[in-house]
Amino acid sequence: MILDFKEIPQANKATGEQDKFELFAREFLAYMGYNIVEDPSRGADGGKDLVVEELLTQKDGSLQSIKWLVSCKHYAHSGKSISDTDELNVGDRVKQHQCDGFMGFYSTLPSSGFSQRLHSVCNATIYDSEKIERFIITTNNNPQALNLFVRFFPISWKKYLTLTNEQVQVNDTKHLFDTKQVNDNKPLFDAKIKCDICGKDLFEAPRKSIYVLVVGEKDIIIDVKYLTKGECDIVSSQQIRKNGNVDYWGEFSDLLSPNTWMIELNRFIKDVNQGKYTENAFKKMLNLFMQTFAYVARQPSAQEQARFNTLKEFGLL
Ligand SMILES: [Zn+2]
Fold first, then answer.
1. Which residues have a Cβ under 8 Å from the Cβ of 6 and sit 6 or more positions away?
2. Using CA atoms, how far apart are residues 238 and 217, in angstroms rounded to an integer?
3. In the chain, what are the domains?
4. Which class for 136: exposed (0-12), middle (13-18), buried (19 or more C-beta within 10 A)?
5. How confident is residue 191, by pLDDT bands cut at 50, 70 and 90?
6. Beta-strand relationship, 48-57 and 63-73
7. How far is the CA of 197 from the centre of ligand 1 (A)?
């Protein structure tokens, strides 16, 4: 399990956090597309219940409303599974709330047999810890899922980031360019991206580094410069302009963020397709993508997602 449900405090009146798991259930089910009909209220067995609505499209196109009585049980701290004695009078409770079915929302797993017996009593569905985790973790880049993850499981989130930040080793990519070099021990690429002026590794300070497309006559990209910000990029810029060329620069750190990496790759491929790159510039740009791939083969972090949203909002992509 990646999500540690123990991060959500146990029901305890004294701490004022007694509703945290129910609150999580409410937010999670809203994210899953259920309408919240009734907020959590204390149920007959002392457990908290809420009522949610699911709209099902019929074959004739009309909508059928299904009301679920949701029972929340937060046993993660004891690790206890949910058994029959934890859910009493299920059928009666469903009727009492004028619902169509019963939904168990649990931070552990149901005991074997419990869910089978449950289905014999009424229409039922269960969200247990594993199912909930699947809907939070395997939903690629969904901001709502990320929000739930970060908000309710901050420690698990940090661990998950370390896991997913583990880098892929990209090596032996030279054959992509020149088959004659496959048996040559000399790599086509340097494992580092070094500043073309001072030789400093751009990975050491990504936010203080840029890459610059040098555009010559007929809009052809004749070179790609790797540069540290400040002196080196000023010197380089002067050279480029002196030669009558134009420079377009990009933040190196944006190539280390999954979303912006994809956008830049897309732009690169389009430009290549239109014949805008010279051989030299093509190799240098492709090298950037190859070397940075290891950093982006993962989920974006919350901060990266936020920056991406801002760039999108302001039309800067
Ligand atoms: Zn430099």
1. 76, 77
2. 17
3. 5-164 (3.40.1350.10), 171-313 (no CATH)
4. buried
5. low
6. antiparallel
7. 5
For residues 234 and 225, give the distance between their C-alpha atoms in angstroms, rounded to a whole number.
Answer: 12
Spatial CB neighbours of 113, under 8 Å, sequence gap ≥ 6? 84
CA of 176 to the centre of ligand 1 (A): 28
Residue 182 pLDDT greater than 50, yes or no: no
CA of 234 to the centre of ligand 1 (A): 10
pTM of the predicted model, to two decimals?
Answer: 0.54
In the reported structure, the alpha carbon of residue 201 is separated from the centroid of ligand 1 by a whole-number distance in angstroms of 8
Q: Is residue 12 predicted with pLDDT exceeding 70?
A: no
Q: 292: CA distance to ligand 1 center in Å?
A: 18
Strands 63-73 and 101-106: parallel
CA 230 – ligand 1 centroid, Å = 8
Rounded distance from Cα 12 to ligand 1 centre (Å): 57
pLDDT tens digits along 214-231: 999 999 999 999 999 999
Residues 6+ apart with CB under 8 A from 261: 254, 255, 289, 292, 293, 296
3 state DSSP class of 272: helix
Q: DSSP letters along 112-151, please? A: TTHHHHHHHHS-EEEE-HHHHHHHHHSSTT-HHHHHHHHH
Choose among 27, 117, 14: nearest CA to 72: 27
Q: How far is the CA of 268 from the centre of ligand 1 (A)?
A: 24
Taking the centre of ligand 1 as the mean of its atom positions, its distance from the CA of residue 249, in whole angstroms, is 15
Check: CB of residue 72 under 8 Å from CB of residue 50: yes
Cα 229 to ligand 1 centroid, rounded to whole Å? 7
CA of 240 to the centre of ligand 1 (A): 15
